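Q: What structure does this chain adopt?
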Amino acid sequence: MATMTAPPIVLSRLEFADSHTLSRYLATGGYEGLRKALTMFPEAVASEVDQASLLGRGGAGFPAGRKWSMLRKAPVSYLVVNGDESEPATFKDHLLLERDPHQLVEGVIIAAYALQVSAVFIFVRGEFALGLERVQQAVNDAYELGALGNKVFGSDFSVDVVVHPGAGAYICGEETALIEALEGKRGFPRIKPPFFPAVAGLYGEPTVVNNVETMSNLPWIVNHGGAAFAALGGGRSTGTRLFALAGRVNNPGVFEIEMVKNTFRDLIYDPQLGGGVIDDKRIKAIIPGGVSAPWFGPDQLDLPLGQDEVAEQGSMLGSGSIVVMDETTCVVRAAWRITKFFSRESCGQCTPCREGSGWIERAMYRIEHGGGRLEDIDLLLDLCDNIAPGLTWPPQQTTICVLGPSIPSSVHSAIQMFRDDFVEHVTKGGCPHD
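A:
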């Protein structure tokens, strides 16, 4: 299957070294989408986004237009942009923050106009030092240009944007924990219901939370129309999407490709994209949507890159991160390191996540480092089943947010697909890859 290429939407300026500057942005059509939006009724702008069927690019894949329409009948108080990209091996939003911050800012202003919101917060992961600097500069430039502040470009619409750095907690990527952090509190996820952001969000007011990549698509959608965006991709997965490809590939990086029309194999092996596996080794497994996602084997490489297509096979596209593991990869070590990350990043509110993640991590450590027992393999599955009963996907909820039930994904996948590797670790007294 040949890779289907569509003109880039959110990465169209990356060929320019100065893509982050206002001068380059204006020279390449910057803020024209906003000017056009201001000539339309706010409902008409929202309608274009609805028509585009733009799925949220943060992980959950909820349609942006539908999220907005839930609040259209009642005034929205705040728009919050989630730039706290913290999933391991996920770095697409990071790229957008650093290389095209004005595109994000323009998208944010368009969304604020469509929602008639006058206060916006862009929450950026604290470790993204360069990204933070460039987004703040883009906001400052937008104020000087007249795209932000009172009477945007001479219209009757006014809006202010605040860039807020996070403190580096993975859990703050969860929208209600992010809202808690914005309010100056510890990043603890809120119980939903009643605390759906659309009902009781920032400062208890109705709030829309959208992802960086989602916002960055809006200038193009307004300029070209929602129908043009919806014509790309297929089914519910319209448009292009950014994929952060990492692991054992010759050319890791961020790639924007048309959804559904391309497969995992296209992304990994196309010379213009992943460029194949290092040393032409055989693929052992792939993680299709961030480390929260259940793994796929090489038999699923020809699966289309679409939200529903991947979900039907028991996983998710999630954060847009695809990690390739080849025959040289120790899957036990990979699963242990993922579990260690989740254990460290658990906020500690819920017992299954707080205690269970640590128990699983310790058992995985034993197996990887030579102290494992054969009964540990079934013990791990039992622990996983207690955190996410049935070990199905999507997982059963036993905790306030989905971090807890995401913990078993890598361990369950690794044991289910490569149980012999675990047995070998136990019988040989450690990792045979060392």
